[in-house]
Amino acid sequence: MTVDLHAEHRPYLAALADGELELVPAPTRDHVSDCDQCRSELEAHQLLGQRLRAASRAAEPVALASRSRRFLLPLAAAAALAIVVGGAVLATRPATPDPLASAVLVANQSPEYTSTNAVDIAHWCTVKYGNRVPVVALPGLTPKGARMDWPHAQGVATVTYALDTETVHVSWLSVAEGGSQPQVVNAGGKPAVLVRRHGITALVSGDATQAELLHVAQEVASVL
Description:
Elements lengths: L12 H5 L8 H9 L1 H24 L7 H26 L6 H9 L5 E2 L3 H12 L11 E9 L6 E8 L2 E8 L9 E5 L2 E8 L2 E7 L3 H14 L1
Antiparallel strand pairs: 1-2, 2-3, 3-4, 4-7, 5-6, 6-7
Helix pairs in contact: 2-3, 3-4
């Protein structure tokens, strides 16, 4: 299930760009301050406003000689403005994010839910995620907690474990990547292990060695 976290805020971006803060709910102002995608759209709105005001100021002192010119000049300005604004929106649109790098990034944050019970953690993740998160109870792995994130509208349920003195994260993703055999990948400049089986994608990361991460991924694949 994909949730668009930006949809409820987009109707207020134009008002926010015009400085009409009284029309913008506080949750939207808070969201935009932390959201790169919404800030990019806000900047496009602001650029549109600046271009419109500049075009208006430039047209005011011009004495138009005829009705036909009065009609054609705004049309030409509007066409040029549409090209400029369209290019600005394309230029500010962020590149497609790497879902694996995003998963590793959010996995390193502190758990929202703390527990040492693997069943309770899986239940909490399933409720928060809206998708089934399997129970992973493996020898040597001590559950510490879990968190739920939606980077770039992609669901990531992360369960954190202690492996001796090291930390291992098992992230359950809403993207269809990987194969049935664990595969070592580069996720945001760090080694991780990706596996997908029966429609479920898991990414194993952390500060453990690559061999340990691969072993955990193999064990995770066996319970899928």
